[in-house]
């Protein structure tokens, strides 16, 4: 006689966005109150009231839904759950599921005792999509969280190669070959010790022969001391994350391939360590870039734009349909936007509007800042074509983007200036490296 498999009981989570939608039988119950939501835990269900965020705009509402998903997973602790969603038409429940999934993450590689935090499970029809997103997020987080004594330029390259199974390596340059072809990348990284010498590499998505050619360019500074314009101890403490642009580009490239998008995708990684040594570049040094322009070094701590400049020049030579670069480029963007909202710049207004729309729909924040060309004279140099940094303390994110724009040559271009790091907050105790903007960019590329 065959015994029937015992079915696992699944507990519903009923999610409401309006007070009037909550069933009358629950309205007199005492909810646990939090800043962004109210929750009632019963024996047979959970009631989640999101009326507190119903007034937010689409972007904030979707973003908050992800954070709440993370918080509710920790609130539930154990069990198997599913969602009854009585949401608004402009929110996407997938954000809740992704937040739930991301809350499982912990970086325990260097801890003697690892945490077990996977007891609460949620069942839904988007499992494959959420798993793919989580895989990229976890890879990005792991890469950024790994310290620079373990993760240098070579290690970042190897991690990218192992992760990107559907890509072929088409270019790898170091040493004298790098110096001849990518002089700014070479100059920035030449101060590092021998085993951490600079690298430029290109990966090609090998499954597609699309006519749409897109370049992703990632700033990969494995550690940034600031060079001879050395940072303070506090300013240097998070600089293992200065390869966050490269990490996010690798994660985004993986998502493009896993979603089988019909694009000819090229991933360029500029991998260096900005160190202090007798070989380090100096303020007032002048270098000729790949494009032929002469750049005066106004500040050795403005190194990310230098390595991106050579990569952008290389990408433009192929006349692609679009270039996207991602970089932890300026503190000025963080001052303006805080750590959760990356800024972006775009030289085509129609593309900028499409990216804003993608950001709002996915709940993945990206906020446009202007390529304000009136500030371009701040990059003027008395002895070279231009300097790598503005001559005032104002508008630093904009002047950095204007510097990069000098190398773009009228190709459609998006520049993302991101933090790539998140602090613990009222929704989640996690602090560390973070994926930023990749879901918005994935949707943008799908629609491109």
Write the layout of secondary structure elements.
Elements lengths: L9 E7 L7 H4 L4 E2 L4 E4 L4 E4 L8 H19 L2 E8 L7 H9 L17 E3 L4 H19 L7 H11 L3 E7 L1 H7 L1 H7 L9 E7 L7 E12 L8 H4 L7 H15 L5 E11 L11 E3 L5 E3 L7 H13 L5 E6 L3 H7 L5 E4 L2 H14 L4 E2 L17 E2 L8 H10 L7 E5 L3 E2 L9 E2 L4 H10 L1
Parallel strand pairs: 1-4, 1-5, 5-6, 9-10, 9-13, 12-16, 13-17, 14-15
Antiparallel strand pairs: 2-3, 3-4, 7-8, 8-10, 11-12, 14-17, 18-19
Helix pairs in contact: 2-3, 2-12, 3-4, 4-9, 6-7, 7-10, 9-14, 10-13, 12-14
Q: CATH homologous superfamily name of the largest domain? A: Zn peptidases
Low-confidence stretches: 1-5
Structural class comes to: alpha/beta
CATH T-level fold name of the largest domain: Aminopeptidase
- CATH architecture group name of the largest domain: 3-Layer(aba) Sandwich
Tell me, rounded to a whole number, the average pLDDT. Answer: 95
- How many distinct helices? 14
Instruction: Please describe the biggest sheet, giving its number of strands, its sense, and whether it closes into a barrel.
Output: 8 strands, mixed
Helix content bin: 25-40%
The strand line-up of the biggest sheet is 7-8-10-9-13-17-14-15
Dominant shape: elongated
Instruction: Estimate nothing, just give the exact number of structural domains.
Output: 2
């Amino acid at each position: 006689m065959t015994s029937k498999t015992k079915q696992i009981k699944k507990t519903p989570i009923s999610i409401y966005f309006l007070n009037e939608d909550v069933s009358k039988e629950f309205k007199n119950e005492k909810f646990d109150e939090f800043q962004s939501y109210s929750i009632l835990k019963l024996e047979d269900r959970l009631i989640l009231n999101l009326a507190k965020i119903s007034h937010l705009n689409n972007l904030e509402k979707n973003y908050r839904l992800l954070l709440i998903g993370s918080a509710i997973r920790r609130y539930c602790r154990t069990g198997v759950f599913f969602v009854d969603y009585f949401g608004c038409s402009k929110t996407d429940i997938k954000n809740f599921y992704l937040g739930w999934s991301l809350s499982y993450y912990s970086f325990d590689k260097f801890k003697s005792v690892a945490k077990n935090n996977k007891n609460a499970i949620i069942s839904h029809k988007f499992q494959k999509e959420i798993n793919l997103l989580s895989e990229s997020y976890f890879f990005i987080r792991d890469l950024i969280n790994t310290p620079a004594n373990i993760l240098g330029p070579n290690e970042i390259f190897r991690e990218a190669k192992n992760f990107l199974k559907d890509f072929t390596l088409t270019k790898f340059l170091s040493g004298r070959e790098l110096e001849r072809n990518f002089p700014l990348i070479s100059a920035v990284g030449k101060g590092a010790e021998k085993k951490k010498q600079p690298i430029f590499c290109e990966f090609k998505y090998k499954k597609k022969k699309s006519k749409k050619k897109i370049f992703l360019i990632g700033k990969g500074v494995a550690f940034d001391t600031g060079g001879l314009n050395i940072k303070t101890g506090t300013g240097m403490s998070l600089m293992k994350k200065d390869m966050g642009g490269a990490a996010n580009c690798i994660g985004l490239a993986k998502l493009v391939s896993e979603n089988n998008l019909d694009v000819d995708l090229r991933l360029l990684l500029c991998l260096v360590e900005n160190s202090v040594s007798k070989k380090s570049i100096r303020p007032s040094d002048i270098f000729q870039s790949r494009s032929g322009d002469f750049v005066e070094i106004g500040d050795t701590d403005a190194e990310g734009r230098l390595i991106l400049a050579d990569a952008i020049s290389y990408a433009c030579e192929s006349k692609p349909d679009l270039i996207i670069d991602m970089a932890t480029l300026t503190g000025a963007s963080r001052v303006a936007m805080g750590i959760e909202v990356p800024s972006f710049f775009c030289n085509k207004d129609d593309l900028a509007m499409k990216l804003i729309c993608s950001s709002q729909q996915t709940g993945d924040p990206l906020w446009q800042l202007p390529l304000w060309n009136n500030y371009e004279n701040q990059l003027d140099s008395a002895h070279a074509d231009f300097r790598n940094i503005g001559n005032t303390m104002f508008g630093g994110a904009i002047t950095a983007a204007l510097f990069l724009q000098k190398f773009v040559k009228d190709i459609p271009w998006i520049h993302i200036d991101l933090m790539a790091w998140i602090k613990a907050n009222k929704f989640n105790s996690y602090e560390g490296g973070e994926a930023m903007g990749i879901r918005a960019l994935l949707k943008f590329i799908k629609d491109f």
